[in-house]
Specification:
Number of helices: 4
Distance between the termini: 48 Å
Helix content: 25-40%
Length: about 130
């Protein structure tokens, strides 16, 4: 039996555990929509597009929750290096301390949402056709 103690990582110890308080509903001004572009004030039109038809939930990454399923993905050394550099850049430039898995889950949600929205014209379809998949 090993005498080593397993401790949580520093990111787990110092992460926020509660949501920041929300302003009262009366204090929040309703968003204004630009009729020409369909964009809500402060957000591009792509983020404020009409909801998808019924039956298609809007895809979002699962974020920081316990995941019950596991999948192994093999990547090249260059792809792994890019992913790690992206993780470090998100932390340094944007203050987001996320792990590689969370970045991958967010990218999957983006790719699947694009496929739902654009079908044959989605970036996922184009890349898969180009790679001969």
């Amino acid at each position: 039996m090993s005498r080593r103690v397993s401790l949580p990582a520093a990111d787990d110890l110092f992460r926020p555990t509660a949501e920041p308080p929300q302003p009262p509903a009366e204090a929040v001004a309703p968003p204004t929509t630009d009729a020409a572009t369909g964009a809500t004030a402060g957000r591009p039109a792509a983020e404020t597009a009409e909801p998808r038809p019924a039956g298609r939930a809007q895809r979002r990454p699962s974020g920081r929750v316990r995941h019950d399923e596991k999948m192994t993905v093999y990547v090249t050394a260059a792809e792994l290096l890019e992913l790690e550099q992206t993780r470090l850049r998100l932390r340094a430039e944007h203050g987001l301390a996320v792990d590689r898995g969370r970045i991958v889950r967010a990218a999957i949600a983006i790719a699947l949402g694009d496929l739902d929205e654009h079908g044959e014209d989605s970036q996922l379809m184009r890349r898969l056709r180009e790679s001969g998949a």
